[in-house]
Amino acid sequence: MFIILSRTKQYLRKNGFYYKKEYMRPLMTPDNIYIFKFGRKQLDNRLIIRYSHKWTGRQRINEIDLRLHKQKHPRVFRTEAELLEYLQTHLMDHEARVHSETDQQGKEEVSNGASK
Q1: In a 3-state reduction of DSSP, which class is residue 45?
Q2: Angle in degrees, 0-180, between the axes of helices 6-14 and 80-115, rounded to the nearest 10
Q3: Residue 60 pairs with which residues in a beta bridge?
Q4: Would you say the pTM of this structure is higher than 0.90?
Q5: CA–CA separation, 20 vs 112, rounded Å?
Q6: What's the CA gap between 63 and 74, in Å, rounded?
Q7: Which of 2, 29, 60, 61 is the most buried (most CB within 10 A)?
Q8: In the chain, how many H helices and how many E strands?
Q9: Would you place residue 106 in the very low, low, confident or very high pLDDT band (cuts 50, 70, 90)?
Q10: What is the reported pLDDT for 104?
Q11: Please, are residues 74 and 50 in contact by the beta-carbon 8 Å criterion?
Q12: Which has the higher per-residue pLDDT, 107 or 94?
């Protein structure tokens, strides 16, 4: 059973976010990659989890990269607890700011188009 980021998934569901999971196994590296896209209206946020397996078969997260709304430089976390702490403090503010900016741009485009 694949249970990486179970607490993060619960947090996102509780706050009204949708998500999509993808699994990737690169040929050249021993790490596995789990891509997790999420968002409210569009899946424009992305988590990239690089993990490997211990000799006992348990999964070990090596790195978690978070890109909110197509950021160029990701935030890097070592554990899911650090990620959850960051999401709880920043995600709602970031969502509100990004969607208010896109709503304002949409209104400006409509008003510019109507005046022509």
Answers
A1: strand
A2: 40
A3: 52
A4: no
A5: 36
A6: 11
A7: 61
A8: 2, 5
A9: low
A10: 66
A11: no
A12: 94
Residue 32, beta-bridge partner list: 51
What Cα–Cα distance (Å) separates residue 16 from each residue in 45, 76, 90? 14, 24, 15
At 1, is the pLDDT very low, low, confident or very high (cuts 50, 70, 90)? very low
Distances (CA, A) of 22 to 36, 46, 60, 100: 6, 11, 18, 29
Provide the pairing of β-strand 75-77 with 32-39.
unpaired
Cβ proximity of 68 and 55 under 8 Å: no
| Residue 72 to residue 84: CA distance in whole angstroms | 21
Q: Taking the CA atoms of 99, 73, 33 and 28 in sequence, report the sign of the dihedral they define.
A: positive
CA-wise closest residue to 46 among 65, 29, 30: 65
Q: Per residue in 3-41, is it b (16+ CB within 10 Å) or e — as a string?
A: ebbeebbebbeeeebebeeeeeeeeeeeebebebbbbee
Among the listed residues 49, 51, 92, 42, the one whose alpha carbon sits nearest the alpha carbon of residue 70: 42
